[in-house]
Amino acid sequence: MVFSFIGKFVTIYIGKNIGVKYMTLQNFEKKNLLIDELFKKRIIESGKPQTEIKLSWSNWGFGLEDLDTSLKRLKRAKIDYVELHGNQYGSDLGYTAKETLKILNNNDMKVSGICGMFSDECELASPSGIVRQNALDYLKRIIDFTYEVGGDYILVVPGAVGRSKKYDDSEIERSTATLRLVADRFSDSGIRAAIEPIRSAEVSFCHTVKDAKEYITKVNHPGIAHINGDLYHMQSEESHIGIAIVESGDMLTNLHLADSNRCALGDGFMDIDTIIKALYAIFYEREKCYLTPEPLGPGGNPYPAMNNIPDSETLDKLVNDTAKYFYARNAEILS
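^ that's the sequence the OP posted. Answer follows.
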């Protein structure tokens, strides 16, 4: 018995052709077709994008590597933007705006945004007022820093990363009320607060785009109005990544990229083409919107990576493989 696969149907041969069996599409394939139609509709009605989606890179996964070395690596891979590690953990810690701008200018690079880091010591949802105040002070510092270096957004996680067990049933109320206290600062600075849904293995609440929208509604402030997606978390929590992207619409301002194994694009089985089509369907090439690889590798809490001494050759390959694969797939789709 030999099976010949042609398109959507299978012709079965047993000695001689005895018939054709038409295969029904799997549910995710039906959704893929919907995304494809939305992409084509956008092209037909509005034409091909005049600019391409902006590719950035989240550098906190580079650990303790100096910023100049990191930016040179990104520039060699034809990446012009960087999402900086939000490492202003205290008044004497982290990047300074003056030195950062100097390094950025020397490498002809720009800041897309800041990856805010929220642990159980610095958390909006904590039952401890001291911890919540830590989170507020931290956000004030990185809002000021983001404005000074020209970034467009700050990634905000409603709860602590690495804490998957909830404190109680009032986490969302504490988190939204605390974030509202700095919402005016986001509005006044023009910096977007990008709420990030994270998989339930890493955080206790806010796991999906729907959850993020509900969280934003509960904050109820114009300064808190955007979403940071993440493919690795979305493959765990969403029924279909492309549909989730479309449903994010204008609220999506940054999307973290990694393949299905949380490694370089092209190393797993993530359907990158459908994701790119979904992004163009919502006109994601618009201003203040970025794609930002964050391939941290599989595992639980990824935060320890920020304090490691990295292997330069491994990072070179990770960046080069990801950038080449994305640019190739993007060109294929737009052709």
